[in-house]
Every structure is written in structure tokens, then in C-alpha cells.
Amino acid sequence: MKLFAVAGAMAVLFCQLASGFMIAPSAFAGSSVVSKSSATSPTSSLQMRARNCDLLGKKPNRKARVVTFSHKRIHKVQHLNLQWRKMYWEEGKRFVRLRLSTKAIKTIDKYGLNKAAKKFNLDLVKFTA
């Protein structure tokens, strides 16, 4: 356990755990704020992906609005109907795992996976399962 003092009107007690987390008691609600210490943990290889269609490149509509009875305009996000699909790629002789919108699934049903990927310049090697 390490103690640190913050200069100013309030002194804050930090407790560093063996896992590298820092816990600081909140001054307002009585709950603890937990943050990951970057010095003790290795960098993670996981990255957050955007909610976009891999084939068509469709993105969420961030300009949608809800109009209430009193005519207040509230902004909302209209997300895509994304589905994870594992499909067999005949030319590459392997399975690929794609995050597709329902429109992209219909496009693949119509043209086939290989032809649709060529039409939208998609490299299927990056999506091998």
C-alpha cells in the first residue's frame, strides 16, 4: 500500500493493488474511482472496432432526431443491423469471419462472396477465421 498526498485543500489516499489498479475514494458520492496504471501493465493487443459493415462500409446515422409531443428535438444514433457471419471463401479455400449489415448479406446472396468482395475492393485474407 502506497500513500500519496495531493497539494491543495483535500488530501487523497491512493491504494495500489498488486494487479496495478489505483483506487481513489471519491469526495462526492463515496464510491471509488478505479483506473489502470499504465506503468505496471503491458500494452494490450485488443483494439475496439467501429460498428461498421466490413463489406459495404456502412456507418451509423449520427444525425437522427426524435421529436417529442412538446416538439423537443433529441439527438439519437441509429445503429446498423450488424451480424457476425462465418462464410466459406472458395477461392481462398478457407472460412472468413465478417461483420456484415443485412444489406451486405443480401448482396453476398445475390452475387456470391468472391464477386461481392471484388466489387467493393475487400481483401478477404484479412478476415480469415
Q: What is the name of the CATH topology of the largest domain?
A: Ribosomal Protein L24e, Chain: T
Give the beta-strand count.
Answer: 7
Shape: flat
Give the low-confidence spans.
Answer: 8-19
Mean residue pLDDT = 78
Strand percentage: 25-35%
CATH level-two architecture of the largest domain = Roll
- Report the biggest beta sheet as strand number plus sense, adding barrel if it closes: 3 strands, antiparallel
Helix content estimate: 10-25%
Question: Count of helical segments?
Answer: 2
Please tell me the total number of domains: 2
**CATH class value of the largest domain:** Mainly Beta
**SSE sequence, one letter per element:** EEEEEEEHH
Q: What is the CATH superfamily label of the largest domain?
A: Ribosomal protein L28/L24
How far is the first residue's CA from the last residue's CA?
A: 44 Å
Structural class: alpha+beta
State Rg.
24 Å
Strand order, main sheet: write it out: 1-2-3
Signal peptide: 1-20
Protein name: 50S ribosomal protein L28
GO molecular function, one term: structural constituent of ribosome
Family: Belongs to the bacterial ribosomal protein bL28 family.
